[in-house]
Amino acid sequence: xxxxxxxxxxxxxxxxxxxxxxxxxTGLALLPSKNFLYTANSRANTISTYGVAPDGTLSLAGVPxxxxxxxxxxxxxxxxxxxxxxxxxxxxxxxxxxxxxTATGVLTEVSGSPFPANANPTAMVFTPxxxxxxxxxxxxxxxTAFSFANGVLTQLASSPVISGxxxxxxxxDLSGRFLYVANVSALNPQPYAATVGNISGxxxxxxxxxxxxxxxxxxxxxxxxxxxxxxxDPQGELVYAVTPGTSFSIWCFAINEDxxxxxxxxxxxxxxxxxxxxxxxxxxxxxxxxGSNTAINGYxxxxxxxxxxxxxxxxxTTGVSPGKMVFSQ
Length: 329
Known about the structure:
Distance between the termini: 12 Å
Order of helices and strands: EEEEEEEEEEEEEEEEEEEEEEEEEEEE
Radius of gyration: 19 Å
Oligomer: single chain
C-alpha cells in the first residue's frame, strides 16, 4: 500500500498486503464504494476479493474464485453501474462477467459467461453510459466491440475493427464520443519513420456502439518508441500516451471536441523517465502517475499546455514491476 501526499504528490510506502505465492496479480478493480478490491491472478487463473479498510489496508475476503473456462485472467474492470466485474482471459480468448453483491463483495458468475472475445483479449474500456465495451486483441491487431446489458456481452456485428500493430491500451473520452487505441509496435510512414507506434482514433456511434475511423487517424508523435498506455486528463481535453523509455517518452495531444482529431501539444513529446505499464491521474486531478518496470513516476501537469514536470522525492521505487494501480480515496 502507498500513501500519496496531497500537497506534493510524493509517494511513500505504507503497510504491505500479506503475500500469496504463485498468483501474479495483473489486474485491479476497485468498487465505486471503495470497500472491495478485486485482483485478476494470471498465474493461478483466479480472482481474489479484498476488503478495504478506511485507512486503505487490505484483508483477503474468502477463497479466490476461479471463473468457468477461464485461463490467463489479465485485466479486471468494473462497469459504470458498479454491479458487474469483467475479467479478460488472455489464454482462453474470452471475458468472464460476475455480478457483485455490493454489501459483501461476493462474486457470482452470470449466465452465459465467459463470452467469446476473439484472440487474446487484453485491455478493456466502457463508454461512460456503460452500454458498450471495447477490448484490445493485440495478436490480431484489432479492437472488439460489445453491447452490454444486465451482465451480458453481445459482440457487435460491425466488429472487430482493425486498429494497428500491437494494440495495448485504449481510452474513451469523457463525452463518450471518441475511442483512442495505443498501437505499441505500429510502423509509421515518412516523415514519422523514426517513431514506432501510434494512436488510432475512432468515432463511437452513440446508438449502436459501432466504430468508424476518425479522419487523420492514426495520430503520431514526432519521435518516440512504443506508446503502450493511455489516459485522458480530468478535464477531458488532453490524451497522454506513455512509453517505457526516457527519451520522447510522454506524448501529449489535445482532443478536437468537434471531430475527435488529436493535435500534438507544442512541447510534446517530453523526455522524462516514464514507463509503459499504466498511466492515471489521482482523484484530485493534480498529479499524473506512470508505472515503469521498477518504479511509479509522478508528475504535475499543466491543463492548458499539457506540459508535465517530474515530482522529485523518495518512495517512488518499487523494485519490482507494479502491474496496476488504483486509488482508495
